[in-house]
Amino acid sequence: MPAAAIAILKAYFRICLFRGEPREMPAATAFLVFSAGLYTLAGMLLVLVYQSLSAAVLSALLETALLLGVIWLLLAAFRLQSRFNQTASALTGSGFLFSLFSLPLFLLRPWEGDAGGSPLLALVSLALLFLFGWNIAVIGHILRHALSTRFAAGILLAIGYVWLITAALGFFIPETLT
Predict the structure, then answer these.
(1) Helices (H) and strands (E) in the chain — how many of each?
(2) What is the Cβ-side half-sphere exposure of residue 17, based on CA atoms within 13 angstroms?
(3) pLDDT per residue over 74-118, tens digit each?
(4) How far apart are CA 170 and CA 150, in angstroms?
């Protein structure tokens, strides 16, 4: 693996381990485009496990666009648009990793044909719940630093952000595509 790829992954992992901040991400637009591309690809793979290719592509593109739009608006509300590339890179890079962490769990598909009593289903559900909570905490960590606010405010914004993205995806992605 090239040194640049390792450095990028290390930067994403540092964010996920609460050791890095968005300001440590490169501010270059090319880096943001790369990070957003990884995020979109990983999101598409994750959705492809349980939806059609067209729904997976639409969902991943829409989610990426919503992420970028919401972050731009949030930073603009605080007059911190200059932090957009680094904040968006941190969010998409960490989101990329969380999608990769989740993918093997989704590929197990323990919920298919199970009434809910399987130990594998319980284990996968707990692992996904852990990853979801960790992801919320990382988003909160990123938003706290991007907005120069308290961690609790970052967590509340992260919860609102996840709710907004989930609601928008549910509204815009028709069931007929699944």
Answers:
(1) 6, 0
(2) 7
(3) 999 999 999 999 999 999 999 999 999 999 998 887 666 655 667
(4) 30
